[in-house]
Predict the structure of Lon protease homolog, mitochondrial.
Amino acid sequence: MAYGRNLPWKTALRISERRVQVRTSGLLQLPRARCHFSSSPGNLTRIRTGWSSTSLALGRTSSFPSTTTTTVTTTDTAQALRFGYHRRLSVSALRLKGKPPPKNNGNTEIEEVEEGTKRKEKKDEHNNVKVDNGNARSGDSAPLLGEIPKGESGGTSGRGNGGNDSGSSGSGGGRRRGASDRALSKPTVPDIYPQVMALPIAKRPLFPGFYKAVTIRDPAVAAAIQEMMKRGQPYIGAFLFKDENVDRDTIQSTDEVHEVGVFAQITSAFPIHGEDGSLTAVFFEEEVEKKQLAPNPYATSFLKKHNVSIVDVENLVEESYDKKSPVIRAVTSEIVNVFKEVANLNPLFRDQISTFSMSQSSGNVIDEPAKLADFAAAVSAGEVKELQEVLETLGVEERLQKSLVVLKKELMNAQLQSKISKDVEAKIQKRQREYWLVEQMKGIRRELGIESDGKDRLIEKFKEKAEMLAMPEAVKKVFEEELNKLAHLETAASEFNVTRNYLDWLTQIPWGQRSNENYNIKHAMTVLDEDHYGLEDVKDRILEFIAVGKLRGSVEGKIICFVGPPGVGKTSIGKSIARALNRQFYRFSVGGLTDVAEIKGHRRTYIGALPGRIIQALKKCETENPLILIDEVDKIGHGHHQGDPASALLELLDPEQNSSFLDHYMDVPVDLSKVLFVCTANMTDTIPRPLLDRMEMIELSGYVADEKMAIADKYLAPQARETSGLKNVDVVLQKDAIEELIKSYCRESGVRNLKKQIEKVFRKSALKIVRDLGEAALPEEKAMTQESKAVLGEPEKRTGQVSKEEEGKAADVEKETCEQPQAPLAVPEWVHVTIDRNNLKDYVGPPVFISDRLYDITPPGVVMGLAWTQMGGAALYVESILETALTPSSRPALERTGNLKDVMKESTLVAYAFAKSMMSQKFPQNHFFDKARVHLHCPEGAVPKDGPSAGITMATSLMSLALDHKIDPTIAMTGELTVTGKVLRIGGLREKAVAARRSGAKTIIFPVDNTSDWLELPENIKEGLEGLSASWYGDVFDIVFKDLDKERAGNLWQEQLKGENPDTEASDEHDND
């Protein structure tokens, strides 16, 4: 926003005085400058400003108060300008005191000053004054800066100026007076200065008598300051930004700054980066002599070319006050007392107060309350708003009170800092003293032989552990080397902890420690039967393992893998095996594992390294022959950057290699040949082939209905009754209810869902009992045990009377007790709950499966097949229909749906091709496939299906549709079909047989190569099923189409295809989508 020359702007400033030192790289250009301003107390000055340019660029500011003020008294009041260009030096003096003000207007006064300066430079060249880095030095003993009175600071710049400005340091202030007794004095400040440049400041206001550093980044302002110094007019008006976060070098609006500011004199200016060839000007302070200048609107007209703001100055007089006023004297005394307290807490304040006291002309700060108020606000780190209010207040009494408030806050801050510092120091000293005493006590104990070093005890502990272990020679050698290394390490060294942790792990591995195994076969059978029903293959394999160990006298480790659907007891059987063999049990899952370090550990070079899970298992079990169950081995991940965990298991599960298993952390061979590894998996397709070859596979098929019934009756129901709090309650779950649960709610291969449903039945029963009886019939306080009474502090029954005090104490303890242990609620004996088939849905809801099979009566084209899934076996129906009616002009096609994968799609094409071939051979007059557009579907469509075992089922479905013959709904079949009609072997016959029986099938057709699998099935699975094998599809045809009317089948579809020459149909294109 630009302002015109005639736009008025009124602001008030305090008069201040400064010593000026300008250091610049050029005469007129100062692109970056840091300006120090100082102000002296005096009359307040009101500034009326008129903008003489369209823009104003000013710099960011930061303030700090001055702590030293030096008044140089000379015999003559003069102004000394020293301009140094590179290595040249010239000194000239301009005397202003005593010269009458010029009467003419214009720039006559400025021109006379410049001419006097030039003459003085020529006159004083013989003084041979040198300037080095801004510090003026004289070749003789003549004083250059004037003599400093005793007791005052030698530095003339004060703390507010940093104490390091060129030409104003302590060395400059302490120069001795020369023989010529010439003194240079600073220029006088006029009472009415016509115009000055306006400069905004930020963060803190400037107070009279203090310094403030301002960084100017605008080249125009820097050049204006340089020319002001050259002309002997180093005066500016300093205004404070209202917004503390302003970071601009321009004033966009008069509302951005406060109305009251300070009339300040520039004491020094120099570039931020000290370039060679600088301009230096030093103004020396003494008692300011006001000089009246005639108002001349053109005295500062030279600033117009610099695009800066110009302000007109008027005097602003403080309100009169009485120094002897009780209020003023009381507030002044309080400020002095607060200063004393702050000085005791903060040494910096002590120096500032001392400097301020010496700078007062009266010698007593109480006699100058106005200056004291300004000083109190200047040295306090108060809020900007409060400090600005002190500056704007003209009444001395009110200003003193506001300064006292700011100073009180500073005292509170100093007291808090002192308290925090003392507390921290006390804690540190206490810890240091405790540490010193502990170390001294340790030294005394060692000298007396009472106690040895902690490291020695640690080494002895490791040696004692090693003596109880049967370490191999290679391991013992490593142990001794690490122990020797530990003995020579300092306890504070990082390597000490690494070595100690390694020795700790090395001595916690159970070298040579084994558990006594139980080779009693009867005991093993009892344990296995107690925990699991069925699973004869698993039990037989464990008994074989025990028998071999009993004959050999020792048992070697084995790797067994249980494969089966979820919920059949793969994980739980591992615990039973460990209990039967009297071995320790450890389980960890590798499902989703992608980091090989979980198995083989991290190397010791890593921070926080640990051994793998196998070494951790040995440590936890404390024997070298535990049973380690590796769960979900078929779901192990494949790491990209952390190695391949499946490959790491190869060494672990190889009987030829695991006798010297090498963990990355231990880095010594560990014998795992005595460990019995048991793995579990749902399927073998995702297990890597090399890993699969190292394991002995035992398949766990799903349970049939009879097995589920026995498991629910013997294991699941009693366990659910106890967990539901109905152990002593007459709640009966009848067998017909369990049968209904198995048939209509839980058809999966395992019993996990069956367990959930039984638990739900008993929970509903518990809720029904509580609701029917009501909570009033089962009071909780009557069911409290003796332990509960002891916790509550209930007094024992005594024959005498119990005092009221004891009763009150017991009541208080009872109220304060939050958790009261309670005994099970006593349910009356007359409560009886029975769950049967009729009321089962009240507990578990409506049935999930309505019927045993999808079709009770199958139409032509629908056949029941069998499939294997991860959950066990399932019935897979194949449906075929004729999409459009047969006509002489129709074209053949085959549409397939049902979420079929690649292998199963190929099976449909094979079955379609074989069906057409068989139809042409057995029924040449039946031209169904020559004209039929067939749609083949396998429900359910949301379930992905793949595999070749549905080949004979699809062929039978197509043949049933072509021959218009219904297939018996109690016949289920499975088998892979080739284009020549050969029936190939399939897998999962046990699961498929279970599914067939669950679906109500009575006959199952399977490949002849699976006859041995059929014979190995338990009788409870085969019960009610007739197993028929087939080598060729002709065998299947004879079974399912045994009552087919062949004459009718051969003459089918002739009515629909009448008038069409069958010999021309062979050339039709087939659309086999």
Remarks:
- The longest helix spans residues 396-448.
- The CA atoms of residues 813 and 1070 lie 91 Å apart.
- DSSP finds 32 helices and 32 strands in the chain.
- The two ends are 77 Å apart (CA to CA).
